[in-house]
Amino acid sequence: MALAKSPAPLHPHPQQSGGRYRALTFILTFLLYTSFHLSRKPISIVKSELHKNCSAVSEAAIIASSSSQQPSLSSLHTDVDCSWKPFDKSNYKQLLGAMDYSFLCAYAIGMYLSGIIGERLPIRLYLTVGMLASGVFTCLFGLGYIYNIHNLSFYIFVQVANGLVQTTGWPSVVTCIGNWFGKGRRGLIMGLWNSHTSVGNILGSLIAGYWVSSNWGMSFIVPGLIIIIMGVVCFLFLIEHPNDLKTIYTQNSSLGKTVSNFSVWWSGYGYRSLLCSLPQSYDTELLLPRDSERIPMQPVVVVKSESEPSAISFMGALRIPGVVEFSLCLLFAKLVSYTFLFWLPLYITKAAHLDAKKAGDLSTLFDVGGIVGGILAGVISDKLGKRATTCAVMLLLAAPTLYGFSMISQFGLGPTIGMLLVCGGLVNGPYALITTAVSADLGTHKSLKGNARALSTVTAIIDGTGSVGAALGPLLAGLLSAGGWDQVFYMLMTADFLALLLLLRLVTKELASSKSRPISTVE
Fold first, then answer.
1. Taking the CA of residue 4 as centre, how many other CA atoms within 13 Å lie in the half-sphere pointing to its CB?
2. Which of 61, 296, 322, 326 is most buried as measured by Cβ atoms within 10 A of its Cβ?
3. Domains (ranges, CATH) in the chain?
4. Major facilitator superfamily (MFS) profile domain spans which residues (predicted)?
């Protein structure tokens, strides 16, 4: 075939060979981070099982024992041990909260280190190790039920360790998706892609809820096994950068017929060998010659240039224009989002007078609105080329909407549903845009002069700062709710206004731009 004999196939046009692999990267990274969120959700489902309503259980045990002449041993055991020690004490809320905060604080601290480490290691291997470790610690929490462990320190240790290893996920997947998708439609693509958080939360709730009443240990073990399996899938199939495709033919040509050799697979080129073993579709035919044909190869000498860009330092990443402003803005935006995540079901129960199950189901509408808001923010920012302005407008609208929600939610189910969707879109829209498209833009900022090794560090700095707000929001809400829910909403509105103020300089710069095409401050 003439096409195969020409030297052009060694460097096919990205539009010819990259489309299929770009779709693969999109789907694979979506599933990988879905499994991360899937493994985080069980703790919120199992809390009700760790501390039950002992009075209700006792009444049921008394009724069951009174129907027989002699109470059974299981009834007496249930009467005494209706909750899982040590969460059977009166301060169980503080103990359960300690597990939440231990995970969130470890995640926030570890995120700053994760990006720096990730820039210096192969993303595929770094993400694989993190997923395998996260799966192990998630399963370990569930084994506490199987092996009857009642030591609080054990569960705190597992949460801290899991929070640290899960920091490998976000910088890695954002770096991969940023490598494969350009800035043109990055907002739309990442708005769709970022829905993995809600999908993971929903799947985690369903899986954990299936076993929570019969064997809550399995509520952790099954998600833990899922993320372990996805870690193996990541190792085999993830392609970090489009440039990796250009090296497939060169590396496997040097191996001849031994491309599927076991040592080659486990030396880190398993995914490339797997690609070479696939049927030669139009895409792979451009890259790989047929076995019956031989292409003369010229010797290739790889010389490491002295000017090859090195991984960026922490302070170097902070000096990129816009990183500090967007990081602090995300702190307050994530504070609002995570306050809703932890406290919305309880608020709906009190305000709308619904039971816990209905309130939990209703609270998912906030996530639905968040998906729509994230996609809408991406589309608008792509169209205008103004990321900061898009975030600022949504934050400006979110603050009065939060106050409206606190008022309207007391007037029935219908208004509550509508306000939940609107609040979810306005609150999670800026949050989603900053953690995805903005982070990818800043990690490839023109001030880096082509150095693409800053994306993971920038992403980690932005999300790590946001995670500080994620830990503070629920804590402040718990303290302020004792004085009434109005104080909580005042705190949320204040956080939104502070996030808006932090973006004013960037918004002014965007609006003052007089160039012919829209220019974002993060370009």
1. 16
2. 326
3. 17-51+83-243+312-514 (1.20.1250.20)
4. 28-511
